[in-house]
Design brief:
Strand order of the largest sheet: 1-2-3-4-5-6-7-8
Number of domains: 1
Number of helices: 12
Distance between the termini: 12 Å
GO molecular function, one term: triose-phosphate isomerase activity
Function: Involved in the gluconeogenesis. Catalyzes stereospecifically the conversion of dihydroxyacetone phosphate (DHAP) to D-glyceraldehyde-3-phosphate (G3P).
Helix content: 40-55%
Shape: globular
Number of strands: 8
Strand content: 5-15%
CATH architecture: Alpha-Beta Barrel
Pathway: Carbohydrate degradation; glycolysis; D-glyceraldehyde 3-phosphate from glycerone phosphate: step 1/1; Carbohydrate biosynthesis; gluconeogenesis
Bound molecules: 1,3-dihydroxyacetonephosphate
Family: Belongs to the triosephosphate isomerase family.
Enzyme class: isomerase
CATH topology: TIM Barrel
CATH class: Alpha Beta
Structural class: alpha/beta
Order of helices and strands: EHEHEHEHHEHHHEHHEHEH
């Protein structure tokens, strides 16, 4: 068994201003404390909008909360005349530990290709942050039964140019597009099928030890009521949570899975 540390990451998407962010992180910290959450057993991370990051940093660092934080996207450029963009260096300076790259909403609404996603992931790694690289098929691909081949192609393209040492730190989030925000969660076996295939693919393409270190998350309509059977699967190391991460009780209840005694 590997020593991959489970990760529960909350992607707030375009929700909550910085005042609301402050309130949510405070409530999350209290709830985790109330549950006696053990940070040695799993990492809990919030991914607020850019405009909340400074506030979240101040609260987490000031109160020494054992909650990680990061951003939902990053520019592919280092600096310069790119109006509206936010660089990896800026995020690193804000103490971000994680940056989501290639979320399906970025791929869909901003035409991000695997090449762009890979370039972003490499920049994030250069700045000593961890990219959460999102992959996953749409409904048409799932209905055609091509989810594994499709997702592995995305994995290959989105990890291009990342060396083995850096890849060991990368988090991959398998988020089937048809399960995002729809309430339609993948079955535990469906999620395991693709997550297991991703890990085997890394073992084949790179090295078995490396595949054993890479954390793979499932995302798509995860809630406290459906997460246990999914996160119990051998190749699933946690969850990337959207809607349910906006409710601190619900989000903390998902993280609780790893604090409860495990059978088997
Ligand atoms: O896109 C997601 C997380 O990045 C999943 O969103 P939901 O949990 O709202 O389905």
């Amino acid at each position: 068994m590997s020593d991959r540390k489970p990760l529960i990451a909350g992607n707030w998407k375009m929700n909550l201003n910085h005042v609301e962010a402050n309130g949510l992180v405070q409530k999350l910290a209290w709830t985790l404390k109330d549950h006696r959450h053990d940070p040695a057993k799993s990492e809990v991370v919030v991914l607020p909008p850019f405009t909340d990051l400074r506030t979240v940093q101040t609260l987490i660092e000031g109160d020494r909360l054992e909650i990680g934080y990061g951003a939902q996207d990053v520019s592919v450029h280092d600096s310069g005349a790119y109006t509206g963009e936010i660089s990896a260096g800026m995020l690193a300076k804000l103490g971000c530990g994680y940056v989501v790259v290639g979320h399906s909403e970025r791929r869909q609404y901003h035409d991000e290709t695997d090449d762009v996603v890979a370039a972003k992931a490499r920049l994030v790694l250069e700045w000593d942050m961890i990219p959460i690289v999102c992959v996953g098929e749409g409904l048409d691909v799932r209905q055609a039964g091509d989810q594994v081949a499709y997702t592995l192609e995305q994995v290959q393209g989105s990890l291009a140019g990342i060396g083995d040492e850096a890849l060991a730190k990368v988090v991959i989030a398998y988020e089937p597009v048809w399960a995002i925000g729809t309430g339609e969660v993948a079955t535990p076996d469906d999620a395991q099928e693709v997550c297991g295939a991703i890990r085997r693919f890394i073992a084949e393409q790179r090295h078995i030890d490396l595949a054993d270190q890479v954390r793979i998350l499932y995302g798509g309509s995860v809630k406290s009521g459906n997460c246990a059977d999914i996160m119990d699967k051998p190749d699933i190391d946690g969850a990337l949570v959207g809607g349910a991460s906006l409710d601190p009780e619900e989000f903390a209840a998902i993280a609780r899975f790893y604090d409860l005694p495990r059978v088997g």
